[in-house]
Write a structure and sequence with these properties.
Layout: H1 33-49, H2 58-85
């Protein structure tokens, strides 16, 4: 086993500055009630502004549901074929 890679050489030690202690740091800021309410109001306004302007018609909803059902059916068929054709793990 080569110990020269893990051992530190006497002249090559790095000098790091001392780590800051708790007394040197700035005190942690607390978020006030007004700030939290403002944030929630802002998020609610963004969500409200991104709502759909027009409602989908019944035909569009029916087509969407039919498309999702056919997608699920294709995925189930694909999985069934994979289980039948692929070798077991």
């Amino acid at each position: 086993m080569n110990t020269t890679m893990t051992a530190t050489r006497p002249g090559r030690q790095q000098q790091h500055p001392p780590s800051p202690t708790l007394t040197n740091r700035a005190p942690a800021r607390r978020v006030g009630l007004v700030d939290r309410l403002a944030l929630r109001l802002g998020v609610a306004l963004v969500a409200w502004s991104r709502r759909p302007r027009e409602l989908d018609s019944r035909d569009q909803l029916a087509r969407r549901v039919q498309r999702e059902l056919s997608t699920e059916q294709r995925e189930r068929q694909t999985q069934r074929l994979m289980l039948q054709l692929l070798p077991p793990r």
